[in-house]
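Running log. JK asked me to keep both predictions on one page so they can be read side by side. First protein, sequence followed by its tokens:
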Amino acid sequence: MARTKEFDPDAALQSALELFWRRGYEATSMSDLVEHLGIGRASIYATFGSKHELYLKALDRYAETRDPSLLAELSQPGPALPAVRAVVRRFAAEAASPESRLNGCFVTNTAAELAPHDPAAARRVEISWEHVETPLYSALVRAQAQGELPEGRDPHALARMLFVLLQGLRVVGKASNDPARVRDAAEQALALLD
């Protein structure tokens, strides 16, 4: 007869996510996970698989819970550019917040640490990035169709520029203790939409 789990796998996954997010993949050992989750190594392996599989599951969880409203924010009826500006300013404010200085963005951290040599992590990063870039592009296309964005502007290129800016804001916000740095960059980028 199989034993029932004596821990909540969902809570353990959330706890692993928080540890990986704070420390990164390489700096988190299985011993760290055992201690942080308060469950045995064998239980971790039986429930989540390897450390790498647990990391990917934590990354999936993060992607499911972060910015779930981005599409809704950018697809509201009416003028589109105010929504785009609000999203960029929100990302800048989040990047400059004390919490971001501690952890940054888990997807951005993964992009820097694992994506260059880990195809499974790279796929997840790319999917997450598409969930940011595509709604930006759609909003900019709508803005152009509504006359908010000049005809000569390329919505696809602008969406990519804003997406790269958002990722850069997350990196700089984590590394810098000068909030003006990210706010100024965001405002200069938004000026390109005028």
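And the second, directly underneath as requested:
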Amino acid sequence: MMQRLSFVLMALMLTACGSLIELPGSGAPPKLYSLNAAADFDPPAQMQDWRILVDEPMASRAIDTDRIAVRPSDIEIKYYANARWSDRAPRLVQNLLIESLENSGAVELAGRGPSGLRAQYLLSGSLVDFQTEYQSGDAVVHIRLKLNLVEQKSGRVLAAKTFEQTQETGVQTRSVIMTFNDVFGLIQKEAVTWALDVIATTS
């Protein structure tokens, strides 16, 4: 009887304290952030029959995550608290490049590579930088994307280029995200225009 009473008392104590114990995963969910695809392209003379696939860019483990990276120094990487990208950064970049190609109005199809879609061209590369950095006390968003434009049939690299932008930002998370949106918007427009120009001159 005493043993049963002890179990009952313990259960009541745990119930009473339950609201005071923060269990793993019981905190407020992180805010999710995404970026916009480039859309302000000059209208093309006509749509081409070009089909372009976009590979997910390679990235280091520090960037290949849905966490939003910040580098307080050259040897340290941290992440913003309670904030996440809507997808892993390389996948987010891939999706945005596909949408930007579609928004250009110049291609018949833009899709994810590798896939079963048949396409003449492939954009592949690496996401080298995708973080906020502190430079001389100022917060700066730094994005660097290396791209190769490959002719699928021959496997030949038609062109390669590095796209890099930096821009000062505020320290609040929302300000950082808005700066990411501006910076990557510039890179997307530049990258899509470059790819289409290369295809036009080599096809």
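Observation for JK regarding the second prediction: The radius of gyration is 23 Å.
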